[in-house]
Structure formats: C-alpha cells, structure tokens
Amino acid sequence: MTTQLAPATTARTSTPLRVAGAVAHLAALAFLGAVAFTVLLTLLGVGIGLVPVIGIGLLLLVGLVYLLYGVAWLETARVDGLYGFGLPALAWRPRVGPGFGGYLRTLLRQAVDAPMWRALANLAIATFFGALVLTLLRTLVASIVTCFAPLAGAETVRTVFGLEIATAWAIPVGILGALVSAAGIIGLALLHGVLSRAILVPSQEEQLAAQARTSDAQRAGAVRASEVERTRIERDLHDGVQPRLVSVGMTLGLAQQKIDGDPDAARSLIEEAHTSTKAAITELRQLARGIHASVLDDRGLDAALSALAGRSHIPVHLDVRMDGRCSREAEAAVYFAIAESLTNAAKHSRAAECRVTVRRRDDGVLWARVEDNGIGGARVLPGGGLDGISNRILSAGGAVRLDSPNGGPTALEVSVPCAS
C-alpha cells in the first residue's frame, strides 16, 4: 500500500526569531545529538558483538532499527517545525508480506530507508554545528568580559585564546572577538537551514517524479477497482438475480398452462412467482445500493454507515465523528471499504461482532478502522474483496493497512485525503 506524498513547500524567509531558534536548537543538539549517537553506536556495537550469543544481538539490532527510525522521525519533525519546509512526516515502510518472513523483509527495507538516513545525516551535521556554536558562545562571552578588563586596573589582559595583551588593546580586541563570534554563530545558524533544506527537502524533479508515480498508481488502482467492481456486478447478476428471474418466468409459464384446467394450482404458482419477484426486486435494490449509495449524497457518511450497520448480519458498533463533509470521492471510497469489510466479516471471519470507527482528522484525512473478533487470516487475493478495497482506496489517493493474524482479530485501516 502506498501513501500520497505532499510536495514540500519552499522555506519561509529567515527572520531574527528563526535564526535565534536555530541557534537554540544547535546549542541543545550539541548535547542531545551527542547522547543520541552515543546510544546508537553503543547499541550497534553491542548488538553485533552479541550476535553469536543465542541471537541476543539480533534482538538488539532489531531494536536499533526502531530507535534509528524514532530519532530520524524526531529530527524531521524538528526541522519542519523550525523552518516550515512542509516536510511529510517520516513514515515506517509498509509491510512487504505476511508472516514472520514479511516482517523481516519489512525491517530490512526500513534499515536501508533513504529518508531515514538523510534525517540522521542532518542530525549529525547539526550536532557538529552545535558543538561549534557552544564554542563560539563561550568566545562571545569571554570577548565581552575582555572589553571590561580595563576596569580592573591591570597592565595586561589575558584574551580568550590565552594571549596576553596590553590593557589599552583590551576594548578593540574584545569588540572584534565579540563581532567575529556573533557572526560565526549567525552564519552557522543560516548554514544549518541551507543544509537542512538541501538534505531533507526533495528537489523539484523528485517531487514531480513522486507525483507522477502517485498519479500512475492512482490511475492503475482506479482501473483495477472498476474491473473488480464490474466482475462483482456480473457475478451478482449471474448468480442471484438472473436465476431468480428465470425461475419466475418458468413459474408463470406453468401457471399459464394450468390456469384453465387447475385454477388453484395456477393461483399457487402465481403467488410463488410473486414472492420470487419481490425477492428479485430486493436483490436488485441491494445491488444498486452496492453500486451507488444515494443516502451517502443525501445525508452524508454517518447516516449511510448507520443504514449499513442496520443491514449487517452481525452486530456492528459504530463510532463516527466528523466535523463537516469530505469530498464525495473520499466518502464513497471509505463507505465501500467499510461495506466490503463487513460483508467479508459476515461471510468468512466467524465474528460475533464488528467495530467501525471513523474520524476526520485535523490534517484533512478521512480515517476509518474496521475490526472484528473473528478467526483472522484474511489475505489480499487478486479479484477478491480486499483487493477491491485496496484499489478503490488507492484510486482516491489513500492508503490501506491490513492486520489479520491467524486466530484473529482482523483490523483494516483506510485513510483518504478529504479533498481527493
């Protein structure tokens, strides 16, 4: 499953407040960054050293990958909060496949994830700059103190570099040292912003390439979703409504033959045909509802899901909290994902109940989670219901996450941009 990347925006113009914030960040990172890298390198060394010891080192190396991701995530959030580049939050790589093997492959992909390592490289540079900033801050303070040295009445003054100069030179030397130190501090803060942008912000070509890949994936998902939907409609018509209508026609034919010789039997056949016709109408309505839920346009997603839960064959606990409406495409994608999930749960999961949670998040994303207490083991198969969900959500620019271990429970999460 893929997530849609938001193109990074240009950095906001540097201001004295932002420069001061960068200086504060660098000064703090001189200590915090050194601690982080010390922990990471120690964990790496100990993990590699303990690999032969019943695999204990492997557990440490697994923990190292998670710690690297956490540090990189914080660094990305720190830079974006400081400079407002519009960076997307660092995301864990999507699961490669089912089972323990899939977990290991996912972990390996995360260990070589380029955005994570770019963030760590930026943190290493910022930590080095932070050490220089602390040195320059000490130099700045010492230079200011040197300016006031003549008040002590001494003939010579020891400067910050350990040199002794005549008291008459204390003020100009102190002012020069203060100016150079302040310029160095400001220069490092500005350079930190430039390097952070170069390292973390994708180039215009990369952004265009990512947008092109996303558009291709959405188009392919839309085509695949339409094919799956068409196949489902054909199957429902062929296996449900069509045989019932054929049966109605045959029953009416028998009734026509008996209407003169055996009116009672003909009447019974007509009643049977009438009952089958009403059942066919009900199936056609359900099929039409599966193609387009009119209540979704008229009363919104909450009302449509309430009606869906009321028709479910298993109890559904519905929790919908939305402030306003999303686009029709986003609401329709989430609605049909939930509808298909409830159908799958009723057919295959042996679940006693389902829980559906829907939220419109502050970041403009419509998020939903469907969880049942069934036997689990759900898999995405070509042409299946989960495949249809994946393609429909992907075509709307969203993402899907399935967690269904053997033995249950099964949880399906979908997220779609409200403005899709």
Topology:
Blueprint: H1 16-49, H2 56-83, H3 99-111, H4 114-147, E1 156-158, E2 164-166, H5 170-200, H6 204-258, H7 263-291, H8 294-299, H9 301-311, E3 316-321, H10 328-349, E4 354-360, E5 365-372, H11 385-395, E6 399-403, E7 410-417
Helix pairs in contact: 1-2, 1-4, 1-5, 2-4, 4-5, 6-7, 6-11, 9-10, 10-11
Which keywords apply here?
420 residues, alpha+beta, five-stranded mixed β-sheet, two-stranded antiparallel ribbon, 10% strand, elongated, disordered N terminus
Task: Provide an overview of this structure.
With 420 residues, the chain is α+β, with helices and mostly antiparallel strands. Helices cover 65% and strands 10% of the residues. The protein is built from eleven helices and seven strands. The chain has helices at 16-49, 56-83, 99-111, 114-147, 170-200, 204-258, 263-291, 294-299, 301-311, 328-349, 385-395; strands spanning 156-158, 164-166, 316-321, 354-360, 365-372, 399-403, 410-417. The strands form two sheets. It has a five-stranded mixed beta sheet, covered by helices on one side. A two-stranded antiparallel ribbon has the order 1-2. Helix 10 (328-349) links the parallel strand 3 and strand 4 (354-360). Helix 1 (16-49) crosses helix 5 (170-200), helix 2 (56-83) crosses helix 4 (114-147) and helix 9 (301-311) runs parallel beside helix 10 (328-349). The longest helix is centred in the middle third of the chain and has 55 residues, at 204-258.
